[in-house]
Amino acid sequence: MSTGKAHKWSTKKKVLLGIGIIVVALAAVYIYYATQKYAATKSVKEDYTKNAIELIREFRVNDSLANATYTNRIIVVTGTVSELESADSTSVNIKFIDPDTGDYLIVAFQQQYLEEARTVRVGDSIAIKGSSSGSSFSEIMEVYTIPFQRGTLHANYSKPGEQAGNP
């Protein structure tokens, strides 16, 4: 009988050890991704170049296919700026909005590119390079949101009266 109890205790120890190993492994994976550094977006070659409204409409037509195609890819998005958001001095978001549906693509800029993002105005025709984060659909608002991260103005960006490549 005493060997039976020892055997049960041994099984409990194995289970607890297994759970502990899984927790440590998951924590290591989380820390790796949470602290991962990315190359500056300007130096990364884009996978796609798309017009903002056309890209937004691709997500509306088939979000599963668009998410599979564009999520975590570097994309140059061209279009006319619909809105600017600057919640504080450390962030700038640029929005392209589909006027027919209200769906929008929003680009958050990397810290080192905030100053150049602050030169952009609503109505500017621009090109932005960034990493797509996929899309989400709001059932309440009935709109798709397509967030981009690691944004930067693309080299071909120009404001009226300037030559391309000199933002």
Summarize the structure.
With 167 residues, the protein is an alpha+beta fold. Helix content is 33%, strand content 28%.
Note down, in words, how this protein is organized:
This protein is α+β, with helices and mostly antiparallel strands. It folds into two domains: 1-36; 41-153, Beta Barrel (OB fold (Dihydrolipoamide Acetyltransferase, E2P)). The chain is 33% helix and 28% strand. The protein has helices at residues 2-34, 52-61, 63-70, 114-117, and strands spanning 48-51, 74-80, 83-85, 93-97, 104-109, 125-132, 136-138, 143-153. Strands 1, 2, 3, 4, 5, 6, 7 and 8 form an eight-stranded mixed β-sheet that branches. A hairpin with a 6-residue loop joins strand 4 and strand 5. Residues 163-167 have low confidence and may be disordered.
